[in-house]
Amino acid sequence: MDFSKFFARSPADVAGDLIGAHMTYRGVGGIIVETEAYHRADPASHSFNGRTPRNSVMFGPPGYAYVYRSYGIHWCLNFVCEPASAVLIRAVEPRDGLGAMEERRGMTALRMLCSGPGRLCQALGISGDDNGLPLDAPPFALALPQGAAPLHVGPRIGITKAVDEPLRFGLKGSAFLSKKF
DNA sequence: TTCTGGATTGTCT
DNA sequence: GACAATCCAGAAC
């Protein structure tokens, strides 16, 4: 599928189809195994209360990275979809640049490197400086998956609003999910 | 200008 | 299983 058209859809569709995609940042990355969808009418979405300087990227064109700080400590990486919606990247199966990830995370346990949005950004070295960058140009590289991957679908994690909506997607049987479905 | 709460993680029990 | 750490955006005043 065409790259720009891939992201110009509802976040639930994009989140499911992103499972199995190969993503790298400065040559470090792996296979996306867990995502969450945040649509425009979602009370848990940053875009729900309207456009602000922080979330303005979500209101821009699809196929861009939206990075924000969570709990004052962690960075979280999102992919912008149709206007005012995005997909949160929650977990990646490490494949490329393992040494760099282990060094940044300060550990070598493979399944602890990228199993969570904060850990993922730390392992890849993503920060707020990368907010608003296109996903089809360096330092990002994204290869869309060939065919549909076997999916788990379940309620989202770590939020306080609209908790029960089944908008979390994961690769079935993966050992690199942040939590079991 | 001040205050509040969060799309999390690591550590301790 | 429970909880503290830590800081910025957004809202209220």
From TrEMBL:
One of its GO terms (molecular function) is DNA binding. Its EC number is 3.2.2.-. GO terms for biological process: base-excision repair. Keywords: DNA damage, DNA repair, Glycosidase, Hydrolase. Gene3D superfamilies: Methylpurine-DNA glycosylase (MPG). Belongs to the DNA glycosylase MPG family. HAMAP family: 3MGH. This is Putative 3-methyladenine DNA glycosylase. It comes from Rhizobium setariae. The lineage of its organism: Bacteria, Pseudomonadati, Pseudomonadota, Alphaproteobacteria, Hyphomicrobiales.
